[in-house]
């Protein structure tokens, strides 16, 4: 049971701006999310129904899970001190 992973336009742009080595690490983590959207170390964000975050070094990947459709949507990627602003 593999989830389909989608990136919002904003998340794709944020990923493209990161250093190449960080991009690779994030892509690997996102592929792991497709297999298991709630791995150990994942944190469900407060004040949200289905938004989660994973750590990749100093960066965070925020994503939503739609279990009915088996879709994971990456909504935001950024440095840990900036990613939660405007949430």
Automatic annotation (TrEMBL):
<comment type="similarity">
    <text>Belongs to the RelE toxin family.</text>
</comment>
<protein>
    <submittedName>
        <fullName>Plasmid stabilization system</fullName>
    </submittedName>
</protein>
<keyword id="KW-1277">Toxin-antitoxin system</keyword>
<dbReference type="InterPro" id="IPR007712">
    <property type="entry name" value="RelE/ParE_toxin"/>
</dbReference>
<dbReference type="Pfam" id="PF05016">
    <property type="entry name" value="ParE_toxin"/>
</dbReference>
<dbReference type="InterPro" id="IPR035093">
    <property type="entry name" value="RelE/ParE_toxin_dom_sf"/>
</dbReference>
């Amino acid at each position: 049971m593999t989830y389909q992973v989608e990136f919002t336009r904003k998340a794709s742009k944020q990923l493209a701006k990161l250093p190449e080595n960080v991009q690779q690490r994030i892509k690997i983590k996102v592929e792991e999310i497709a297999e298991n959207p709630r791995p150990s170390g994942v944190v469900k964000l407060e004040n949200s129904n289905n938004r989660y975050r994973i750590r990749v070094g100093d960066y965070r990947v925020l994503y939503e899970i739609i279990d009915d459709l088996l879709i994971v949507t990456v909504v935001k990627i950024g440095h840990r001190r900036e990613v939660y602003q405007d949430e």
